[in-house]
């Protein structure tokens, strides 16, 4: 017991020192802690686990895992006719971002909230730089996850980028879905040169994003990460988050 308590305090001190002296204060421990704090606002119990989906790319040459949060229906409210609901988050989000919706959505059905590959606690394999190929990889990852979890049919709800992935999955595996719910869905068209000044703005933004990716080898989120502790302080200065803390 004494060793366990000592280990707990040493872990807490190490985590605090990392946050204080690291320009980009992020770590696996910080991510776990942030998710626990967010999901602690729920009164219902939940469980979280990794689902091994095998390899989705050649880099790295090992299996990928998808982090999954499950909330069961209320006691006595389970209905076998009600298909499970799968939540797919948007860009720069994760499974815990559904925290304000999970309890109400799980009143009468089981809810699965997943982290897409490259987000949250899921694996971060190097996916293709080709848009159509990476779309297929994300769909294949979602289908592999479904097979491992053992869902025959379900309802899928996607937000933002997650809605794009949900729609792409529905096109390739319609027999697995009872309903598709798209919240603020993303869509992509062929790249065309702008014909009017108003069409020039998104074209400039897209060109700038591609330039950042070329020089940094990553994506537009590089600018956010470069903000380090300044970005974190700005985030927690928001009134809603100050009250939550």
Automatic annotation (TrEMBL):
What keywords are assigned to this protein?
A: Signal
Q: Which GO terms describe its molecular function?
A: carboxylic ester hydrolase activity; lysophosphatidic acid acyltransferase activity
Q: Which GO terms describe its biological process?
A: lipid homeostasis; phosphatidic acid biosynthetic process
Task: Identify the residues that the record assigns to the AB hydrolase-1 domain, covering every copy.
Answer: 84-208
Family listed: Belongs to the peptidase S33 family. ABHD4/ABHD5 subfamily.
Record bears the keyword Signal:
yes
Question: Superkingdom of this entry's organism?
Answer: Eukaryota
Cell membrane as a keyword of this entry, yes or no, is no
Protein name in the entry = Putative conserved secreted protein
Endpoints of the signal sequence = 1-22
User: What Gene3D superfamilies is this protein classified in?
Assistant: alpha/beta hydrolase (3.40.50.1820)
User: What taxonomic ancestry is recorded?
Assistant: Eukaryota, Metazoa, Ecdysozoa, Arthropoda, Chelicerata
């Amino acid at each position: 017991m004494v060793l366990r308590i000592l280990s707990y305090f040493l872990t807490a001190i190490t985590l605090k020192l990392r946050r204080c002296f690291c320009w980009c204060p992020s770590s696996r421990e910080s991510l776990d802690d942030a998710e626990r704090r967010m999901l602690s606002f729920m009164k219902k119990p939940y469980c979280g686990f990794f689902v091994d989906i095998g390899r989705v790319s050649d880099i790295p040459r090992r299996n990928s895992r998808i982090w999954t949060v499950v909330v069961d229906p209320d006691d006595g409210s389970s209905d076998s006719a009600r298909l499970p609901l799968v939540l797919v988050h948007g860009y720069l989000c994760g499974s815990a971002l559904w925290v304000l919706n999970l309890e109400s959505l799980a009143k009468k059905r089981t809810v699965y909230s997943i982290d897409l590959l490259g987000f949250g606690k899921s694996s971060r394999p190097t996916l293709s730089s080709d848009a159509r190929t990476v779309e297929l990889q994300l769909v294949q990852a979602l289908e592999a996850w479904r097979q491992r979890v053992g869902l025959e049919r379900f309802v899928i709800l996607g937000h933002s980028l997650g809605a794009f992935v949900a729609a792409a999955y529905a096109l390739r595996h319609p027999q697995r879905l009872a309903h598709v719910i798209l919240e603020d869905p993303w869509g992509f068209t062929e790249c065309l040169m702008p014909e009017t000044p108003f069409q020039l703005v998104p074209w400039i933004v897209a060109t700038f994003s591609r330039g950042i990716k070329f020089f940094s080898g990553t994506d537009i989120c590089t600018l956010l990460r470069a903000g380090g502790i300044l970005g974190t302080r700005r985030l927690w200065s928001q009134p809603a988050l100050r009250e939550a803390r």
